Amino acid sequence: MYAYLSEINSILAEANDRDANDHLINVAYKSPVGKITGYSYMLEDEFTDDTLDTIGLRFNGSTDLDDIKVVYTAEFATQEAESGASDADADYIFLEGGLVIQGITAKLGYEVLGSDNGMYGFGTPLATGHKFNGWADLFLNTPDEGLEDLMFTVSAKVGGGKLMAVYHDFSADESSTAVDDLGSEIDLLYARKLCENYNAGIKYAAYSAGDVGAGKVDTDKLWIWTSVSF
Predict the structure, then answer these.
(1) Among 35, 89, 139, 215, whose Cα sits 20 to 30 Å from the Cα of 148?
(2) How far apart are CA 3 and CA 11, in angstroms?
(3) Which domains occur in the chain, in start order?
(4) Mean pLDDT by groups of 10 residues along the chain of 230 residues
């Protein structure tokens, strides 16, 4: 897959839109034991000429062992950011393993959005940030110290719907005297189909702050929704 982006339309309204000169390349191969994906994302802001270049490799798959399915993912990427006369480098690591037993999925994951000597954190400007490092949205932008996220996820089908619980333990990739512990978070979700055209769900996030120097505060968020399709 190759894509060229000439404009980025932000979810934060038109004031945050930007003209771009972005090239996205993604190449995937399915092997008997999993999917191997290589990617190169070359981003450039047309107004400032700032660039953000990321190259990475990802492997994910699953293996059936009798009544147990083993799932696994490994990913590594390296990034170079240039802004004016300054430049920075940072790496990304993601490791995850899990089991699926009788409809219950349990996963243990470890993600590192690296730092360049505490001055720059690995950036993901095109990502759906809410999906990854906690639903309380405290880490939509990576701290300059970087972010380590040790996570445990359990999900299952209950009462005709999906039940999920996630625990995050956050810390800095490049610790300092002021910033090391970046807090923890518990996320809970239940969603189900009510009938053919209606869905409903409830989601809750509870973040507990770590070191004061990180500038985070205890945060709770609750969502309740319904939707209709036709």
Answers:
(1) 35
(2) 20
(3) 56-228 (2.40.160.100)
(4) 93 82 97 95 90 97 93 98 91 98 96 95 91 95 96 95 97 92 98 92 97 95 95
Query: How many angstroms separate the CA atoms of 166 and 108, rounded?
Result: 10
Distance CA 199, CA 192 (A): 6
Question: Which position has the token pair 């445990």?
Answer: 152
Q: How many CA atoms lie within 13 A of 28 on its CB side?
A: 10
CA angle, 137 as apex, 133 and 143 as ends, to 5°? 70
* CA gap 78, 114 in Å, rounded: 9
Among 221, 220, 119, CA closest to 174: 119
Cα–Cα distance measured from residue 92 to residue 55, given in angstroms and rounded to the nearest whole number: 10
Within 13 Å, how many C-alpha atoms sit on residue 225's CB side?
A: 10
pTM of the model: 0.92
